[in-house]
Amino acid sequence: MMPKNGARLTVRQRLACWLLDLWGWRLDDSRPPADSYVIIAAPHTSNWDFPVGILAKWALGLDFKWLGKHTLFTPPYGWFFRALGGIPVDRRQRDNLSRQMAAYFASHPGTVLALTPEGTRSWTPYWKSGFYHIARQAGVPVALGHLDFGRKRVGIGGYIELSGDCQRDMQKIADYYASVTGKRPEKQGPVRLRQNHAPETVC
Length: 203
Hints:
Blueprint: H1 11-22, E1 26-29, E2 37-42, H2 49-60, E3 65-69, H3 78-83, E4 86-89, H4 97-107, E5 112-115, H5 130-138, E6 142-148, E7 153-160, H6 166-177
Parallel strand pairs: 1-7, 2-5, 2-6, 3-4, 3-5
Antiparallel strand pairs: 6-7
Helix pairs in contact: 1-2, 4-5
């Protein structure tokens, strides 16, 4: 695998590629032609998603951020998760996270944010809509990241520019993930957002 910009692979990239290859994984790299974007990381059904995802991050040379429960960032291991790009989020706080993250994108050009819309490793009937709100408010594309344990493929398989027509956008995303299988398929819920009567950016 060679980086898209033609640069030589770093030692860390070579090591990550070697480990993925050793474990039988193949890497996909169809990231959007943009400096800033939101990556969907799905499906999320197992603790194995984290190490495989981090190896893919290193192999692709991506410096993406991710949001995690604030309890992950307490001593003695908090420094480790921050070093891996983690941003602590207190889920008890109901302020406008989407607006805050959109402002973060505006003030930090080149930000790449990875999110797990399922929000849990257990089966859930709906995805969380945060990735959609953040991408729309920040005006950035959504990269379709996958951890496909069925085909042993990990990485980014494509992207979409959100139109604001949430149902149409979500149908495209659902079509993409229809063939992707998580480590625990029985914990893999449908790709959809909860229906309500909010503005057009919410299904």
